Amino acid sequence: MPDQQDESRGVVVTGASTGIGRATALRLDRLGFQVFAGVRKEADGQSLKAEASGRLSPLMLDVTDESSIASAANAVSKVVGERGLAGLVNNAGITVPGPIEFLPIEDVRRQIDVNVIGQIAVTQAFLLMIRQGRGRIVNIGSPAISPQRLTPTPCRWPARMICLISPRTAGLAAVNSDATFSLPRSTARVY
Predict the structure, then answer these.
(1) Tens-digit pLDDT profile for residues 51-82
(2) pTM of the model
(3) Which of 63, 151, 160, 179 could form a disulfide linkage to 118, CB 3.0–4.6 angstroms apart?
(4) How far is CA 67 from the centre of its chain?
(5) For residue range 20-40, what is the model confidence (pLDDT) as tens digits?
(6) With contact defined as beta carbons under 8 Å apart, do 118 and 43 qualify?
(7) Quick one: 173 exposed, middle or buried, by C-beta within 10 A (0-12, 13-18, 19+)?
(8) Alpha-carbon distance 48 to 53, whole Å?
(9) Which domains does the chain possess?
(10) What distance separates the 2 farthest-apart alpha carbons in the chain?
């Protein structure tokens, strides 16, 4: 449970339409945080609002669109002001399953754009607010691969080939490592 000081502080959650992002947004709302739930569809935002308290606000946010990110950051900044954010949960992501041999390169590019570049862009847009609030950044990755095992994994297909296993986690391992060293712990923490 957050302490009294945290209860009115804001947290941005990307990819809040479904799954882990939705559950995280609703849980933080129940804990008393002011939640800005990043969604791409208005219907998803309305569905979240129906399950939450008045502290949860849907936030139209496409992590691959610079103007969408800037608009979302501007909207949140107007609400939180100088108190900043208690947190940013970078959860938005997609999976492009299948053996690398058969994946269209455009699908791979889209996955990296959403799962790695999008999270970096969102972090950059909200970083001042995180620093102001001495908040935390949580980057959600896949358990399919760990930073300790950043090697290709053989697939269980008839022909031996290499699968594309979560470039998101590999990319985020590098981003988290860099952010941990470049951001003083006194201004932000990265997980």
Answers:
(1) 999 999 999 999 999 999 999 999 999 999 99
(2) 0.79
(3) 63
(4) 17
(5) 999 999 999 999 999 999 999
(6) no
(7) middle
(8) 9
(9) 4-190 (3.40.50.720)
(10) 58
